[in-house]
Amino acid sequence: MATSTSVTTYGNYVDGQWKPSASGKTFENRNPANTDDLIGIFQSSNRKDVEEALDAAKRAYETWRLVPAPIRAEMLYRVAQMIAERKEPFSRDMTREMGKVLNETRGDVQEAIDMTFYMAGEGRRMFGQTVPSELRNKFAMSVRQPLGVCSIITPWNFPMAIPSWKIIPALVCGNTVVFKPASQTPLSALNFVKVLEEAGIPKGVVNMVTGDGDEVGTPLSSSETVRVVSFTGSTKVGRIVNQAAAPTFKKVHLEMGGKNVIMIMDDADLELAVDGCLWGGFGTTGQRCTAASRVVVHEKVHDKFVEAFVARAKTLVVGDGLDDNSQVGPSISQAQLDTVLKYVEIGKKEGATVACGGNRLNDGPHATGFFHEPTVFTNVDPTMRIAQEEIFGPVVSVMKCRSLEEAIAIGNGVEYGLSAAIYTQDINRAFVAMRDLYTGIFYINAPTIGAEVHLPFGGTKNTGNGHREAGVAALEVFSEWKSCYIDFSGKLQRAQIDVEQI
Ligand code: NAD
């Protein structure tokens, strides 16, 4: 589908067809580094489109679940290879539509490649258990089985990686999916789905419906057809999804907000810690669920650390992610930038000190984008809102502590529990912190970001609901156990009753 200008109008992907939404309505996708740059027009879908996609997924499930898992996996290996071949154009599209710098979007696409190769391997594993039976001539085992239709709802900050974390394990397990990407990043979603189509995934197995969270997300969370909802996004929306899914007892997998901490002890390699805090705090413009938005520093090295950290933060080059010189891109949208500006004001009112940054950038090369200076707050009290609430922008709050115990208490003193890190040369301190931080991810002498696809990913408290994605843990979300008993004794044997005496 094309408009009369050179801007392309992209369709939904339903039952193997690219098609317009039922309402005929569309929305624009614009570059957050340059809002004059219109990237494409996408479908504003509604409940009707979702129902059509769910029906297609339900029909396709009946054949896809019977395709042997190693054959499903072969298609996924093809998918991984095709994404690898298109890594550079996919990365450029992603930077253009969501702003993070090219090196990071290359990392995002690489993560999708890694996840797809890794999960395709599960097509020949997906281990169950065989165990002895308590009865003679009886065989016992557990096998994984798919659940059916999965709703996949994703955010914009990892536009290809996060969909791959969900869609690929869902497919290898034998499920079918309806995918709703974030409205800020539909092109990266479409690039991914097109590869799945071209790699030969049968029609109806993967469907994509773009549009508003309420209109598209609500039926995806509540429909009777859906057996699994896998959602990544804010805690606020995750709660809505959880409630919408509850009456039909779906499996609900939620990955939500974070307020992650880096703890720096008095014996830390400070240069390394500064490197880590810059990358953890300002990578992806602070728009990562695992962003290191809090830094807790031992009082003995606090001033030295702050001096070095602030000096380096001031040198970061903010700009269009497509420019090789840029180190920090724009916020995703005006709304997200407004949130950053709001929290900077809150921090000032709460009595924290702006050690650097604190302003929007909107002159010269920054005139048409949502840019903000990398900002460091010092003199932050752990109870302040800037130290408690997820800002999702280039804002880091630095706090002082007197001991490891105090650092751990501050680290744990938020509603979220995604990622935490410690910088220390003392193995005892490192192990105590690793044990006592109640998070799903923990790093020693590395920042809070940098997860690898073959380990479980997710968080505690208001970050998650007990599930994990990535690693073999992803199979727990997208499959369920069936225990099978095979009696070859030729007679009725009653468990727990016909107990053999010896
Ligand atoms: P968001 O919650 O606004 O949106 C996430 C997705 O939910 C989008 O596709 C959106 O359209 C959809 N949605 C909105 N309303 C809905 C509704 N009523 N029903 C169903 N779906 C609905 O989040 P965002 O702004 O896209 O992403 C940023 C958030 O995501 C941050 O809080 C960040 O911490 C979190 N995040 C978490 C992880 C993790 O793994 N824990 C990873 C990345 C991002």
Describe it for me?
It is a single chain. By secondary structure, this protein is α/β, with parallel strands linked by helices. The protein folds into two domains: 12-29 and 37-256 and 464-482, Aldehyde Dehydrogenase, Chain A, domain 1 (3-Layer(aba) Sandwich), CATH 3.40.605.10; 261-444, Aldehyde Dehydrogenase, Chain A, domain 2 (3-Layer(aba) Sandwich), CATH 3.40.309. Helices cover 37% and strands 22% of the residues. The protein is built from 15 helices and 23 strands. The protein has helices spanning 47-64, 69-85, 87-98, 102-122, 161-172, 186-198, 213-222, 235-245, 270-282, 302-315, 334-350, 385-388, 404-412, 427-436, 473-478, and strands at 12-14, 17-19, 26-31, 34-43, 129-132, 138-145, 149-153, 176-180, 206-208, 226-232, 251-255, 261-264, 294-298, 353-356, 360-361, 371-372, 375-378, 395-401, 416-417, 419-423, 441-444, 460-461, 480-487. α9 (270-282) crosses α10. The chain starts with 11 loop residues before the first strand and ends in a 15-residue tail after the last strand. Residues 153-158, 180, 182-183, 213-214, 217-218, 221, 232-234, 237, 240-241, 255-258, 289, 390, 392, 418, 459, 463 line the site of nicotinamide-adenine-dinucleotide.
